[in-house]
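Page 42, continued from yesterday. The earlier attempt failed because a stray header line got pasted into the input along with the sequence. Redoing it now with the clean sequence only.
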Amino acid sequence: MIGKKEKKINKMTLTREEQKSVVKMVMESHQGVTLSEAKTNGDIREEMKLNLEFYSALKEGFVDEKKQPLDEGIGIVKVFLNVLGSVKDFLTGTKIVKDITEWIKGILAKLAEKLAPLVDKFVPQKVQDLAKDGASAVTKFIKEVYNTFSYKGFAKMFAMIRYRTFRPSDEQKQCMELAGKIVYKWIIIALIAFFVIKLIITAWPVITAMVAKGAAVGTGVQQAAVGGKALYGGLIAMLAPIKAILAKLGHGSLYKGIFSSTSAAIKAKDASKISADIKAKEKEAKDKEIDGFKGAWNYCPLPQKESIEFDRMTQLAGL
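This time it went through. Structure tokens are written below.
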């Protein structure tokens, strides 16, 4: 519970710029209150403190000794600030979510939008670059995604919100792991689909040129000459790391769907068909994950002695 019983956070993990972003967000949520006014307003100062501690603890959840935080050009704290905003109402119990599934869908849609620059950073911008760096681009992209997110980071965030604490216990985090895994898979699927679409569109001039020459494309693009260099291996070999990840996530069919969509687009000579078809298959995979979110969120009952009023309010809201 948030209040006097909450353990004090000894270390602020936020950078100076991240702290400024949090303070600015709180001020903007109060319709342009000035810094001078904020300094003399106890409620606003308390809200700033609450959010600084929350986002500091949240950042810790996405970083461990073996992994690096999300590229600072995007910033994990910056991303979640744009998506969650002030968490005061969540942590004080005054925020009532009437439909937990719709709530998480809205959050995930915003997350995917804010994470789009992560994909742009890895997709080669020209066919010539694809010929030289295509395979390594896929590997680097997968590595970055795995070094950025973990289901445990999401589980911690959900535990912080559901149990209204900066320092959820191991048991509380374990209770939210199923919800964290659902969201983790959803995000990875969204990023992979976006990445593959952009990668194939970049390779489209080579693919269509080979089709025009009667080259075999049924098993991938085979060593097409581009600017004096070769596009080695083909798309299937190039995307092998993505195939492996989707298989681990239980969505190997999405990988097959990606190439069936590509094949159909090649036959129709319509690049726009790739994006539409892959997005449709991506939606099916994401919907499959999110269908069980309400049950995952409520996997463990809330301790009655700590949240009698919270239980009553959420029951009235239909959760």
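Notes: Confidence is low (pLDDT under 50) at residues 215-233, 307-319.
Reminder to self: strip header lines before submitting.
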